[in-house]
Amino acid sequence: MDQIVSLCKRRGFVFQSGEIYGGIQGAYDFGPLGVELKNNLKAAWWRSLVHERDDIEGLDASILTHREVLRHSGHEETFTDPLVDCRACKSRFRADHIEDGICPNCGSTELTPPRPFNLMFKTNMGPVEDASSFAYLRPETAQGIFTNFKNVLDSTSRRLPFGIAQIGKAFRNEVTPRNFIFRVREFEQMELEYFVAKGTDEDWHQQWLDLRLDWWRAQGLDRDHLTVLDVPKSDLSHYSKRTFDILYRFPHGDEELEGIANRTDFDLGSHSKRNTDLELDAHVRANTKSNAQLRVRIEAENKWAVPYVIEPSMGVERGVLAILVESLDSEDLGNGNSRTVLRLKPHLAPIKVAVLPLKRNHEGIMQTARTLRRELMATGVGRIFLEDTGNIGKGYRRHDEVGTPLVITVDFETIEGDGSVTLRDRDTMAQKRYAKDDVAEVVRDYYRSG
Q1: Helix (H) or strand (E) holding 249
Q2: Residue 255 contacts residue 247 (beta carbons within 8 Å)
Q3: How far is the C-alpha of 323 from the C-alpha of 226, rounded, in Å?
Q4: Which of 324 and 331 is assigned the larger pLDDT?
Q5: How far apart are CA 303 and CA 322, in angstroms?
Q6: What pLDDT does 32 receive?
Q7: Are 63 and 138 in contact (CB under 8 A)?
Q8: What pTM does this model have?
Q9: Fewest beta carbons less than 10 Å away: which of 206, 232, 323, 366?
Q10: 420-425 and 431-435: which strand pairing?
Q11: Contact 200, 261 (CB under 8 A)
Q12: 384 in Cβ contact with 408 (< 8 Å)
């Protein structure tokens, strides 16, 4: 993990938030390359679910959340961690992180009994701070999907099965943020709520587990580094009938990368106005304040019912961390030389192509390099980076380390000879010359096939 943290700081992937003032625990800022990697991961997820399927719609709901939403979802009552204080050093920890009743900070055994600690952030809206003016920063993006279920259904005329996908910020007041960007207090989620008829939910649950494993492999994760945990009933969330956790082999151990939960009709039922013709499972709480009935017509049975929902949910930061861990490699080049290379899948790479002029500040070479960059930008493959350092060897190593798949060198042969440029492949280090006018099509084909 130390190597990952060092790379992220040195190369501009991730910074500690508020670092010049000592930092904020559990909050991180994504730098120039980190935000590109993060956006590329989100784009891959969105494309695979919303663009490539014809049964999923997108949504972007508000972060500020009405108190009644989280009261009826069960979060006010159950969204807690067990908190323990050390009387000796005054540190606080999650009780399930304490071993043998010993404080991890000072070694004392003077610990308080565990007590529940609600993880949600409260905030006030409007000029007056009182009990009637507060709202929550959402602890998950899912509730915005459930409360907008009828709006999406009415505006799109969807029929079961169908899904609603969302990417957005969520906030959890973690007692002990840890392991770099793995567990933080402010993070982004990518969540899909896939609505199905009761009785088909178990089959769909397995289908979505298989689909999500395939997707992670397409992002470059080794299947041998992924395991599936069928979460024990005693550890299930209050809304879950069954949950599969996809675990990744992080440096600190096998931990959750993504959860796929069968949330049954709990959420839509909890947000629905109660009446006698609404079929709901017994565990769904009554709601006397909602004015909506979040249900669909089951044509085959000629009745209205609240659908079940399958929820694949992942944290973007955890996804970025897993991809960095998986991609980072150190390669022995012989003769005492080595290189650090980030073997990112091309579609995730922050920089798609780097253009390196052989000689710094040489007007002819620089003009050609700038023209080439504009032509490559027109391919639409992503960020094209022009680097005017004049040191090709160091440029290669630098772009290996940040995962740039292709580097193009503009040299004197380009402007005085046959007009060709050198294209270097990150993974093989193979170099091949192409006519300058053909390079854009070569790059386009590379990303089209990759």
Answers
A1: strand 242-250
A2: yes
A3: 12
A4: 324
A5: 45
A6: 97
A7: yes
A8: 0.90
A9: 232
A10: antiparallel
A11: no
A12: no
Q: Nearest 5 degrees, angle CA 137-CA 141-CA 144?
A: 90
Q: What is the pLDDT of residue 277?
A: 65
Task: Give yes or no for a cis peptide into 113 (omega within 30° of 0).
Answer: no
Contacts of 130 (CB under 8 A, 6+ apart): none
List all residues 6 or more positions away from 198 whose beta carbon is below 8 Å from its beta carbon: 264, 265, 305, 307, 308
What is the reported pLDDT for 276? Answer: 57
> Quick check: 189 and 313 in contact, CB under 8 A?
yes
Please give the share of the chain, as a percent, with pLDDT higher than 90.
Answer: 72
Residue of 152, 132, 123 lying closest to 64 (CA atoms): 123
Cβ(409)–Cβ(420) under 8 Å? no
Nearest one of 376, 90, 401, 144 to 271, comparing CA atoms? 144
Cα 302–Cα 303–Cα 308 angle in degrees, nearest 5: 120
Instruction: Name the DSSP class of 362.
Output: -
Residue listed under structure tokens 């980076």: 385
For the ranges 116-120, 199-203, 390-394, which has the lowest average pLDDT? 116-120
- What's the token pair of residue 145? 């999907």
Residue 291 to residue 280: CA distance in whole angstroms: 17
Closest among 93, 99, 136 to 112, alpha carbons compared: 93
CB 319 within 8 A of CB 212: no
Is residue 35 within 8 A of residue 142, CB to CB? The reply is no
Query: What are the respective helix, strand and coil percentages of the chain, to the nearest 5?
Result: 35, 30, 35
- 385 residue type, one letter: F
Exposed/middle/buried for 184, CB within 10 Å: 0-12, 13-18, 19+? buried
A 10 A CB-CB count for 105 gives: 13
DSSP-assigned beta bridge partners for residue 424: 407, 431
* Amino acid found at 55: D
Asked whether the beta carbons of 345 and 216 are under 8 A apart, the reply is no
Give the β-pairing of 80-85 and 303-305.
Answer: unpaired
